[in-house]
Each structure stands twice: as structure tokens, then as C-alpha cells.
Amino acid sequence: MTSLIDAARYYAALALLLTVPGAGLHWFLIHPFVRFWRRVGPGRALAAVLVLKVALAVVAFLARGVLLAPELGARPLPALAGLAVGALGITLDRKRGRELSTSTMLGLAELTATPGAAGGLATEGIYARLRHPRYVAVVLNLTAWALLTGYVAVYGLLLGTIVAILGIVPLEERELEKRFGQRFELYRQSVPAFVPRLQR
Asked: Could you tell me if 165 and 134 are in contact, meaning their C-beta atoms sit under 8 angstroms apart?
């Protein structure tokens, strides 16, 4: 039983190591260069970003022995806390999924939209209480995985993701302000970024 748990922890940590850095890279490649990518076209833009994400995953896979060497082991209390935090993250992510399509999550809205475009600004559901529920959900879910796997590298991914989010959000909001103007500014003033308000 212990060997199965250890194997599950290891492969979960490896999967995160291969995917999480690329997810952050995705938005740092899209937002600052959105005008260039719009000229290139969304299909080619996403293909180019995918190539770089795969290259990053290959590097992480080759370095997995070093990156996944330090670990804290499987411990019951952190694992239980991880399950609780993960439940919150999944709940929040499901609420976010009701408001944003997969194409929006991939960045197609940024790659195809024009300044002043009508519609497309999510302000209902969870977005009426929180401007960035997907990023909060990512942090909650990564916290859960760090507690469940016990790998130091996953805690590193969590810390790096928080830093990346703090860098991505201003870029994203600048883009939204260009696209939606005063409508987004009013939304930003009335809805908190990361800590949800309880009432609409």
C-alpha cells in the first residue's frame, strides 16, 4: 500500500512539473505580445506557444531526477488539509467554468478581439464576486497538490505560480482595459481581485 501511495505521489508531482511551468509561460507569451500574435493569427500563435511549452516540459522531464529528489514524504495531516483545500479549488474552478469557455481560457479572446469590443467581459456568477477566480483556483489546487504529494518541487511550483500570477494579472487587466475601456474600469473598482466578497 505504501509503495502505491509513493508511486501516486511521484507521478502526480511529475505531471505537475511537466505542465505547470508551461501554463504560466503561456500567458507571459500571449499578453505582452498580443498585437504581434493578432497579426500572426490565433492558430499559428497557439501553435508557437505550444512548441515552447513542450520544450519546457522536455527540459523538466530530463531534470526530473534532480527536481524531484527532495521530498517530505506522505503525511496524514497535510494530506487531509490538501483534500480540503483541493475541494475548495475544484468548487471555485467549476464556478469559473460556467462563465468562461475553453477558447477564452486558451487566450483566443485576446488573440482575436479588437479594442472596444462589446460583450465578452465576464461579470456574472463567480465573476460578480471575484475578478480572477481561475488564478485563485490554481493557487488552491497547487496548494492541495503540494500538501498531498509532499514534494519540495511542488511547493516551489506553488511559490513560482503565485509570483507569476502577480506578474500576469497587471498585463491581463491592461489588455482588458484596452478592450473594454470604462466598462472594465468600473468593474475593477467594484469587484475585488483575489478575495471574494460574500454578497453581490
From this structure: no
Q: Is 128 exposed, middle or buried (0-12, 13-18, 19+ CB in 10 A)?
A: middle
**Tens-place pLDDT, residues 51-99:** 999 999 999 999 999 999 999 888 889 999 999 999 999 999 999 988 8
Give first-to-last CA distance, the chain, whole Å.
47
What pTM was estimated for this model as a whole? 0.86
Segment 148-192, tens digit of pLDDT:
999 999 999 999 999 999 999 998 898 889 888 899 999 999 999
Q: How far apart are CA 132 and CA 172, in angstroms?
A: 10
Q: Which residues of 162-179 are buried (b: 16+ CB within 10 A; e: fewer)?
A: eebbeebbeebbebbbeb
Domains and CATH numbers, the chain: 2-190 (1.20.120)
